[in-house]
Design brief:
Layout lengths: L17 E5 L21 H13 L20 H29 L6 E6 L3 H8 L5 H20 L6 H7 L16 E7 L2 H14 L5 E8 L2 E7 L3 H8 L6 E9 L9 H13 L11 E2 L6 E2 L2 H13 L4 H10 L4 E5 L4 H8 L6 E4 L3 H27 L5 H16 L1 H19 L8 H15 L11 E10 L8 E8 L5 E7 L6 E6 L9 H15 L1 H6 L1 E6 L2 H10 L5 H12 L4 H13 L8 E2 L5 E2 L2 H13 L3 H8 L9 E2 L11 E4 L16
Parallel strand pairs: 1-2, 1-9, 9-10, 14-15
Antiparallel strand pairs: 3-5, 3-6, 4-5, 7-8, 11-12, 11-19, 12-13, 16-17, 18-19
Helix pairs in contact: 1-2, 1-4, 2-3, 2-4, 3-4, 4-5, 4-8, 8-9, 12-13, 12-14, 12-15, 13-14, 13-15, 16-18, 18-19, 19-20, 21-22
Length: 680
């Protein structure tokens, strides 16, 4: 229930967001002698791609002529480049069709929500997104490289494809060499600040005709073209920047795509599109730009994205950042060579990325992971309202999932990505109104994931409960161990104790809504916390201490307890929230609190699991709360990242001696979180 009284519907669990990435021609070495396995796969969708392309290129009914095999490669230099471009594009688009077709036949949801490509791969993205037909896409792919090379050399070889593309060049480019000598392709690698310094110095020393940035690969790498005539001087110049190293990426070349000198080629490609009746339409799926940040969502956007292959810097870093902003569950490289996967990893994409080549060894692991997670989410959706108790089929679904994670690094990362979202939405949202078994199954998943390295998940063991215990007094003060309650493969419940003495530990004090104390919840928790600090000072001296809240009231109480905000301001904001006053009152109360913030005495843990030490960090979260609409929305949107948070203290009672047990949980990163007991 939100503060304005509106109830939100439960979030859909089986939400899939898959992004496809098509490699560029830099991966073409991996495409030699591919054979006909894709065309012969029996997929009607694949066959249709090849048939449309063959028809567009003038050999209808002979799709095998587009296979990347030696006997299909023509003899002329530009004819070879034209064939490679066309065949590369067709294979890429056919791979995407094959994956969708195979997933659909197996009843596996795999909806693509975005496409992108590295350089030449943006043409395949345009086709896959629906902005271009296969026939129009293959025409562009066939013409692109010959057009760039003819303009670079300034002469028209005696080849049909050369004459076809040359007619579109502006008069000013005829007979003029845009690339008078070969260029080296050099990667500059180093920290972002060091790269910025060397690029600034290069820009002041060399004109773009000699040294030009053509690809911003990542924060730590920028690729430049270097004219052969200045290469020795360039090497001596960059040697003055020892923090930046250089690497030659390929042999010197006249093929300078993504170069400002190719602006005339852009005009020629534009003419080629019009002369050949090539039509762009609004894509049914957005294309992520490769020449800047953002999405290409209109026909004109996608057309400009294709034209940008000629004369605009490849913005790979921005492409990955935009992809990350879409929050995908999975990113699939639709091609060979795994260069796109490497690019994604080098740019710190957290979503799992995997290469799909159409062969069984890449198809089965990918679809199996998606199917198993979808099966578990389907079981959770059934449990949400049914009131059914957990049974063998639920535990078996978990066992299958964890066998996958134990055998496949990709599977483990994908399971983590998908289930993390569900746990954030369901376990840490503002309302928990599903059936108990729904949360029980999620808790078993969390505990098992957290301790997957401590139990035999491949053998079917599941962790039903996990407790980290520490003796504070007695014969061995400070001893820490973990108590696990397991369900083995045969269905027996067994207990196991783990030595966790080497595991980092923190004390996390948890605040939440106090039943029966709605109006005084914040003030009452302040009094309880101050009493705890006074009566048990050793707890706060022996451990790193953090404060966290599991709901709006708990977060506000933690904020006041941290010393970052005045209790009066926090109570005032809580009263406005509790009484469901107009949004303007809520905004004013939030502004007053933000204006009075101070550095906390004890750090807070944000709903995203990040320790907050500074006024700016806390204020940023406060602003985000208001942008999100309400404090409740703030909490449910951001989720949780700390691995677990509850701290339970039991003081000695008369006759029990001086034993006191602290239950706390590791602050290492991950999914697991201690389930809050029902009787708290």
């Amino acid at each position: 229930m939100l503060p304005n009284g509106h109830r939100t519907s439960p979030p859909a669990l089986r939400r899939d967001r898959v992004a496809g990435v098509f490699p560029g021609l830099g991966s073409r070495a991996a495409y030699r002698n591919l054979g006909s396995h894709l065309l012969d796969s029996g997929s009607p969708a694949v066959l249709e791609v090849y048939r449309q392309a063959a028809r567009a290129l003038g050999f209808p009914g002979r799709p095998a002529k587009l296979l990347l095999v030696p006997e299909n490669v023509p003899t002329g230099k530009l004819a070879q480049q034209a064939f490679i471009g066309a065949a590369f594009l067709v294979h890429s688009v056919a791979l995407e069709a094959r994956l969708r077709d195979t997933a659909a036949k197996n009843g596996i949801p795999l909806p693509f929500t975005a496409y992108t490509g590295e350089s030449f791969g943006i043409i395949a993205s345009a086709v896959a997104s629906g902005a271009l037909s296969v026939g129009d896409g293959v025409k562009i792919a066939r013409a692109f490289t010959p057009l760039v090379l003819v303009a670079a050399d300034g002469e028209v070889p005696d080849e049909p494809v050369a004459r076809e593309v040359a007619v579109h060049l502006p008069d000013a480019l005829r007979g003029r060499r845009l690339v008078p000598e070969p260029f080296h392709v050099i990667a500059l690698k180093g920290d972002a600040d060091d790269l910025a310094a060397v690029l600034d110095a290069l820009g002041k020393t060399y004109p773009k005709a000699d040294v030009e940035v053509h690809k911003r690969y990542s924060d730590r790498q920028v690729n430049v073209y270097v004219r052969a005539g200045v290469k020795p001087d360039f090497d001596a110049f960059t040697a003055r920047f020892p923090a930046v190293r250089t690497e030659e990426l390929k042999k010197p070349t006249n093929f300078l795509a993504h170069s400002e000198r190719m602006s005339g080629v852009r005009a020629a490609l534009d003419r080629f599109l019009d002369a050949n009746g090539i039509v762009f339409t609004d894509p049914h799926t957005p294309v992520v730009s490769n020449h800047g940040a953002g999405l290409l969502t209109t026909a004109e956007d996608v057309r400009n994205g294709v034209l940008a292959l000629t004369d605009e810097v490849m913005a790979s870093r921005d492409t990955v950042a935009t992809l990350a902003g879409l929050d995908p569950d999975l990113v699939v490289e639709l091609g060979l060579g795994e260069k796109s996967v490497q690019l994604l990893n080098d740019n710190g994409l957290t979503a799992p990325a995997v290469a799909y080549t159409g062969t069984a060894d890449t198809t089965e692991p990918l679809l199996r992971a998606v199917k198993l997670v979808d099966g578990l989410l389907a079981a959770l959706e059934e449990l949400r309202e049914s009131g059914e108790r957990l049974g063998d089929r639920h535990f078996d679904a978990l066992r299958d999932l964890f066998r996958l994670t134990s055998a496949s690094p990709f599977g483990e990362k994908y399971v983590h990505q998908r289930m993390r979202r569900v746990i954030v939405d369901e376990m840490f949202g503002s309302g928990r109104d599903a059936a108990p078994a729904f949360y029980e199954l999620l808790e078993v998943f969390q505990h098992t994931y957290r301790h997957r390295g401590d139990v035999d998940v491949a053998g079917g063991e599941l962790v039903l409960r996990a407790r980290l215990k520490k003796r504070l007094t007695g014969d061995r003060p400070g001893q820490v161990h973990t108590e696990l309650r397991l369900l083995d493969r045969a269905g027996r419940v067994v207990d196991r104790s783990l030595d966790t003495a080497g595991e980092p530990e923190v004390l996390v004090v948890h605040f939440d809504r106090l039943a029966g104390h709605t109006r005084t919840a914040v003030a009452r928790q302040q009094a309880l916390f101050q009493a705890l600090r006074h009566d048990r000072p050793a707890l706060f001296r022996r451990n790193d201490c953090y404060l966290e809240g599991s709901d709006v009231v708990g977060w506000l109480a933690a904020l006041a307890a941290s010393g970052a905000a005045r209790v009066a301001d926090v109570v005032a904001l809580h009263d406005v929230y509790r009484e469901e006053r107009p949004d303007a009152d809520l905004a004013a109360a939030l502004d007053r609190l933000l204006a009075s913030l101070d550095r906390p005495d004890l750090p807070l843990i944000s709903p995203a699991g990040v320790p907050l030490w500074s006024v700016k960090d806390i204020a940023d979260l406060g602003c985000l709360a208001w942008v999100s609409g309400t404090l409740a929305r703030w909490f449910s949107v951001l989720g949780w990242g700390l691995e677990s948070c509850e701290t339970t203290l039991r003081w000695p009672r008369p006759g029990e001696g001086e034993t006191m047990v602290q239950r706390s949980w590791s602050a290492a990163s991950g999914l697991s979180r201690c389930p809050w007991p029902a009787n708290r």
